[in-house]
Every structure is written in C-alpha cells, then in structure tokens.
Amino acid sequence: MTETNSEVSEVRTEVVDSEPRWYVVHTYSGYEKKVMDSINKTVANRHLEEQILEVKVPVETVYELKANGAKKAVERKIFPGYVLVNMVMNEDTWYVVRNIRGVTGFVGPGSKPVPLTEEEMKPYGLTSNNSSESGKNVVVNLKVGDIITVVSGAWAGTVKAIQSVNESRQTVTINVDMFSRETPVELSFSEVKKM
Predict the structure, then answer these.
(1) What pLDDT sits at residue 165?
(2) CATH topology of domain 139-195
(3) Given this model, what pLDDT does residue 33 score?
(4) Which of 13, 46, 65, 154 has the most CB atoms within 10 Å of its CB?
C-alpha cells in the first residue's frame, strides 16, 4: 500500500507547473465541442480564468464538391477526438479538466500530461505565454469598440471590433464566425493592431 501512495504523490508532483502551457486532452469522438464548452463553463463557475486560459478545437476549412457540382465550405476538425487547453498545470486544474464529461485523459505517458513544444504549436497559431517576453506588459491604447486587425495566429487578417479588454492578461476579445455563429476569441495584445 505504501508504494501505491508514493506513486500517486510522484504523479501529482510531476503534474505541477506554474507557467501556462498548451496541453492536449483526449475526448470521446464527437465530444470535442461539448468538452470545450464544459471546460469554459467550469472555468467561469469556479473562477479559474487565471489558471485555465484558453480552450481550442482546431479546425480547418475544406471545400466539398456537392452532387450538383457546387463547392461548399465546411469546417473540419484537424484532430478529431482531441481538445487543446492552455493552462497552468496543478492538481486542481488537472482534476477539473480530467473530470469533464467526455474527457478520457491528457496526452502523455501514464498519468503525466506533456505540454506541446514551440514547434508543435506554431502550425496552429498557438502562442506560448511563458516566452521570454511574458514578463513584460505591453502598453496598448485599446478599448471596447475599437476596430482591430489580427496580425498573427489562426485568425490573421481578421478585422473585427473589440468586445472586451483584459489589461491584466494583456488580451482582447473579438467575435469571429465559427460553426455558423458568433464565437468569442481571446487574443494577446501582440497579435492585434489598431486600425
């Protein structure tokens, strides 16, 4: 029994990380959006906004040829069965995400979640919050209603109005068209430019 307890405490100490990183969460097939929505609701309910920063289901636009020869744009999941979570890894956040309905676990050996590397994040427009510049606050004169252009990341080229500004996290929120509806997306100050 003593070995089991020491193994559990080893796993827990290995899981702790004070910097936010991107982790991959495995879900039941078809549950990706439900898991993303559930994590976001739980974060809001438990006030974990400073620990679980962002949840994404990476999608790409593909064009399907219909029977009548017309092309139809369709969003397709890049990684079916997976959700990406930018979070500070500790026992509480691990427990919250791991116990969301539809989640089967974190990607990594055994019970140890492994964060994505910089190289793995680049193709999907993900940014690391623990880069050497993360200690510096960017001073930007942005306010709700300002029109901005997204200059980098997955939404590069998008022109939208700012819905909210979070000075402490150095982010703005805009609404983008996703799944045929307006969806809020949070972007860092460094990813946007005021028009």
Answers:
(1) 86
(2) SH3 type barrels. (2.30.30)
(3) 93
(4) 154
User: Where in 78-121 does DSSP place strands (E)?
Assistant: 82-88, 103-106
Query: Which position has the token pair 């609701």?
Result: 41
For the stretch 71-117, pLDDT in tens is 888 888 888 899 999 999 998 999 999 999 999 999 888 768 888 88
pLDDT at 85: 93
Domain with CATH 3.30.70.940 in the chain: 10-120
Specify the CATH architecture of the domain 10-120: 2-Layer Sandwich (3.30)
Report the DSSP beta bridge partners of residue 147.
161
